[in-house]
């Protein structure tokens, strides 16, 4: 399962595109689960792709942690 599919599943999205709409349904448990994902399971490129998709703009990160934080911020600000 790729990262975007995993995130869609984590946040209870029926469709991948729903990731752009989930802010009202994000719980602290889900955020913690995202932050606790094993960083060896997905590459920095995977996290960058996910963040870029959710933010709907090309992003670049130096670390997986930065990308995870961007995803969390994007989901909480929607």
UniProtKB/TrEMBL annotation:
Domain of life where this protein originates: Bacteria
Name of the protein: Uncharacterized protein
